[in-house]
């Protein structure tokens, strides 16, 4: 399945919700009046695009109508389309190169899909011939270590792990030492997702980051924040906290398969100004695709849908 088909399938519920809403609002009229624009804004909020991003998008639509005098349904939809693309920015797939040490640190709150995404990324780069090492820096629960070990077995990748309750920074230290001595191309570090409070999170991630900087100063480090689309606006709040404290370089949005909250990707991009690199579309190893803004927006709001 191509990226476009994957998104289409995953975003079907959101797309139907948006399309039905637009048809309900605009009924048989070929244009949008002020009340209808308000209703459209509400529809975007309900599709989990988030209040701030919906207001931003509709301000752009109103500006366009004012500038051109064209309030046709076609112009409103294509303006929304264009502005959604502007919110998402350029595509920024993960880019690791063999022959040097790359470190991928996965962060995010409990249950968003960090460990699963670590396994999927591992499988992807393994296929490309990378020498990979997994580091179980989530020492909070024994089950978390087992889960990562399981992904290691499935992808035939070694895992560096300590006991439950060990210091995550110590695991990172050992994992980097092993990565260096074994000539690893990609070290993937899974972390625990506790978000007791901001200071605590900053402390824990800061310590890990200092170890990375000290022990692998030349490594290319990518910090991937994993966000669960099904948590709606909570995902946006989490994304804000993590991007403030964790030097996040890109986002992965998981569970975009089959829920009606696909709009979250726009809300998160708008709030964090951080590119979305990956989309999780299921629980299997290959259910991970590069996030393609064009394909995403076209799947959410098709420009050429008859019913629009
Ligand atoms: N449908 C769907 N399920 C997913 C996706 N990614 C992860 N999951 C599921 O979400 C659940 C949590 O995933 P984990 O990878 O354990 O999440 P985590 O962030 O590591 O969780 P903690 O270790 O508890 O912090 C599991 O049941 C996964 O199979 C996805 O893209 N789609
Ligand atoms: Mg985990």
What are its keywords?
single chain; 308 residues; alpha/beta; Four Helix Bundle (Hemerythrin (Met), subunit A); Rossmann fold; eight-stranded mixed β-sheet; 12 helices; 14% strand; binds guanosine-5'-triphosphate; binds magnesium ion
Largest sheet: 8 strands, mixed
CATH topology value of the largest domain: Rossmann fold
- Could you report the average pLDDT, rounded to the nearest whole number? 91
Helicity range: 40-55%
- Termini separation: 26 Å
Strand-and-helix sequence, N→C? Answer: HHHHHEHEHEHEHEHEHEEH
Which CATH class of the largest domain applies here?
Alpha Beta
CATH superfamily membership of the largest domain: P-loop containing nucleotide triphosphate hydrolases
Beta fraction:
5-15%
Count of separate structural domains: 2
Which stretches of 5+ consecutive residues score pLDDT under 50? none
CATH architecture of the largest domain: 3-Layer(aba) Sandwich
Helix and strand composition category: alpha/beta
Instruction: Tell me the total number of β-strands.
Output: 8
How many helices? The count is 12
Q: C-alpha Rg, in Å?
A: 21 Å
Strand order of the largest sheet: 3-2-4-1-5-6-7-8
Bound molecules: guanosine-5'-triphosphate, magnesium ion
**What overall geometry do the principal axes of the alpha carbons give?**
elongated
């Amino acid at each position: 399945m191509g990226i476009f088909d994957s998104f289409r399938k995953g975003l079907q519920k959101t797309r139907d919700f948006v399309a039905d809403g637009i048809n309900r609002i605009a009924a048989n009229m070929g244009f949008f009046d002020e009340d209808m624009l308000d209703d459209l804004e509400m529809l975007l909020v309900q599709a989990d695009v988030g209040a701030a991003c919906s207001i931003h998008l509709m301000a752009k639509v109103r500006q366009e109508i004012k500038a051109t005098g064209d309030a046709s349904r076609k112009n409103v939809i294509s303006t929304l389309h264009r502005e959604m693309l502007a919110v998402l920015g350029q595509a920024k797939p993960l880019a690791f190169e063999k022959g040097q040490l790359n470190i991928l640190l996965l962060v995010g709150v409990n249950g968003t899909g960090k460990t699963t995404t670590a396994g999927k990324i591992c499988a992807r780069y393994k296929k490309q011939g990378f020498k990979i090492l997994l580091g179980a820096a989530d020492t909070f629960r024994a089950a978390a270590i087992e889960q990562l070990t399981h992904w290691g077995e499935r992808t035939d990748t070694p895992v560096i792990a300590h006991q439950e309750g060990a210091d995550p920074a110590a695991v990172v230290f050992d994992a980097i030492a092993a990565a260096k001595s074994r000539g690893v191309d990609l070290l993937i570090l899974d972390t625990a997702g506790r978000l007791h409070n901001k200071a605590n999170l900053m402390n824990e991630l800061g310590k890990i980051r200092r170890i990375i900087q000290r022990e692998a100063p030349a490594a290319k480090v990518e910090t991937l924040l994993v966000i669960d689309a099904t948590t709606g606006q909570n995902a946006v709040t989490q994304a804000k906290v993590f991007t403030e404290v964790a030097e996040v370089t890109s986002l992965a949005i998981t569970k975009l398969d089959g829920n009606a909250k696909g709009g979250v990707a726009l809300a998160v991009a708008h709030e964090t100004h951080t590119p979305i690199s990956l989309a999780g579309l299921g629980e299997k190893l290959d259910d991970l695709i590069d996030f393609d803004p064009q394909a995403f927006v076209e799947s959410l709001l098709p420009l050429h849908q008859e019913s629009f």
